[in-house]
Amino acid sequence: MLDWTDRHCRYFLRLLSRNTLLYTEMVTTGAIIHGKGDYLAYSEEEHPVALQLGGSDPAALAQCAKLAEARGYDEINLNVGCPSDRVQNGMFGACLMGNAQLVADCVKAMRDVVSIPVTVKTRIGIDDQDSYEFLCDFINTVSGKGVPGF
Q: Which of 82, 95, 106, 136 is catalytic?
């Protein structure tokens, strides 16, 4: 959750549970590739920790996943669940649920360059597409690219 699961929150959560998988705030591919800050920084005590990525360009996501694996992250998590207007205007987050094939392509691009798990954060549906059938179709399309968990 943006502005919540920062390093301080993850430190506190790690005090409560030593083995729970923790997630970073969503970090966009643009911030990692072009940003001046170290958006991949975390404390070794946070392990296991997953980097939650926001983006829709398979090549950029693959580049960021590779960087994250090199930095020691335990998992990559693609965020297709954030409903924020700001996020959706950037073509990532929940709006990606409307294009399961693009999400599958993004997952495949990341899976092709890393050996750590690539998972997907999703919602039940978007807008008027929130039926059980819609969710099953989305999951089936994306899971075919090797996603171990949603």
A: 82
